[in-house]
Structure formats: C-alpha cells, structure tokens
Prior knowledge:
The chain is an all-alpha fold.
Amino acid sequence: MDRSLAEIVDACIEANEVELPVLDETAMRVHELTQSDDYDAAGLEALIREEPVLTAAVLRLANSSFYGGLSQITNVRDAIVRLGSQKVSSVVIAVTQRDSYKMRDPGLQAVLGKLWHHSLTCALGSAWLADRLDRKDLGDHAFMAGMLHDLGKLLILRVVDDLKASEADFDPPMPLVHQILDAMHSDRGAMLMEKWNIPQIYADVVSRHHDPDFGDDETLLLIVRLVDLACNKIGVGVQDKPDAKVAASAEAQVLGVSDVLAAELEILLEDAAGVAGQV
Length: 279
C-alpha cells in the first residue's frame, strides 16, 4: 500500500484540516433520549416526526419483511413499538449521516452508497443471527453494532473528498482508496465513536471488528464479524469477497454456526439487502 497516501489522510485528520463528521442534532437528541433513564416513547415520537425523512425511514423499516406484522404501520408511535427504541435510534443515526455527508466526487459518492447499504444489511443480519443463536438479549445491541461497525470509512471518504476538491493534483486511483479504507477505518471509527460519546459496547465492535484476536465470550463482536463477512461474500459491501468461507470461519466455529445456519444467514442477507435498498 502507498503509505504516503495513508500519511496524507492521517495528517489531515490529526491536524484538524478536515471537519470531523458530527452527530446530527436530531440524531444526538434521539440517542440521548433512548439512553436516558427518563426515556419515554412519546418524546421519541415527537423528535422523529420533526423530520419527514426520518419518519419515512422508520415507517419503511417497521413495515418491511423483517418486522412487518399482520397490519400496516401508519404512524411513528406504532413503529417505535414494533421496532424498539434502540433500533429506531440506530436507523436515525445512520439516515442522518447518510444524508448529511454527500460526496462531491461521483466515485466516492458511489462508495458511500454501498457503505450505507452494507451497514443496514449488516444491522438487520446481526439482529437476526443474535435471535437465531438464542441471544435475544443482544438483538438491539447487534442491530446498532452492525449499523455502526464501518463508521470510520465515512470519515476517510470525507477526507479524500475534501482533498480531491481542494488540490488539483490529488487524484488517487480507487483501488488505492479502498486500501486506505480497509487499513484505517477501524481506528478512525473508534475515534468518531469517542467524539460522539457512543457507548463502549459499540465502540469495541467498531475498533476491533477486524482484529485477528478475539475472545470466545465476545459474542456481540463475533456476530457482527460473521455477518460482515457473509455480506461481503454475497456482494453487499464496499468490496466483494465471493470466495469467503463463512461456515468455516473462526467466528462461525466459536459461535457454533453450522453449515446449514450459515447458508440460512446468506439467504437472509439477500432479503435484508432488498429491505436496506428501500429504507
């Protein structure tokens, strides 16, 4: 990898030459409310209804094949009941970030679109796998961790986009940009999580979802890692990995994911990708 490009990107971040992404005001208020001991659904409903884009996203997810019930959800309050406050908070964070940080460069914008699609698919798949592993206690955590795990890529894309706009001779080829994304996103994502004051349980997944070492008891981390791998295998990622061996992975072995369950996961993720494309 061309270390000089990595150093340029890192230097821009360290020198504050690029504005760090900030958590949208509405997303911040939603996050703080859902983490508060004083949480109430009516307050959450009021915040979401202030933003038509958020209202539409929450309703679409509540009525999707993943969460749809016998009846159509037509209001935010019922959507919150069906999804749960933590899933709603995760969707709000993701949607506001997607809509707030458009890339000026068309190639980078295409990567950002793939990143959003991958993140929501991974969130849906992680929540599903937690349930299939009889870890319903981790369902909401798995959804949010899956949604946020690649957050560092957003920051790096922003830096590269700013550099391309401000420096005429800065035009790295896309394969090199992908190498930088892969190499740097975990550490830089952890930095953003700290800046946004996101709970440590999610920051750990963001910072360690590509670490070679992990503990057998780190179930949340393992779930997100396995679903991330499966997403990339089926072509729902920033870069595809069609030869990935999901059932044979170390994560699958530790979690006790059989060949049959791994195959179910891949089929499930195909459906999740369709849902993610509509939210």
